[in-house]
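Q: What would this chain look like folded?
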Amino acid sequence: MNTDLQEKRIPIIKIRDFLIVSIQVDMHDRLAIKLQSQILEEIAKTGAKGVLIDISVLEMVDSFIGRMLSGMATMASIMDAAVVIVGMQPAVAITLVELGLDMPGVDTALNMEKGMEMLEKRMRDQQVEDF
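A: My prediction, written as structure tokens:
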């Protein structure tokens, strides 16, 4: 099989109660669908309470990839996991706004460190609400 046609796998790393997803390749439709399934499966399998998605490598997104990111966040939220997207390039942010894509329940941060802080804060706030 031609190596160009082989599917790339984006690693999903679990750290404490969080999943870390660092996209290091250009996204295409099939890869986005596969990643969405992998993240949701990992949330179900590990009980992760947060997902940090690093999209700093993505220089452009089309409407499909934008909808996949939004849908992934909504689905993760339904599964009781917070989503933080980090490293968004200005062109990506502009495209998402121009496409009119809402991302309810999704926090954004400039980098992974700030994103982890946001997830940890959400966890602390949730623990306080549970009491």
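The domain at 12-130 is CATH 3.30.750.24 (Transcription Regulator spoIIAA).
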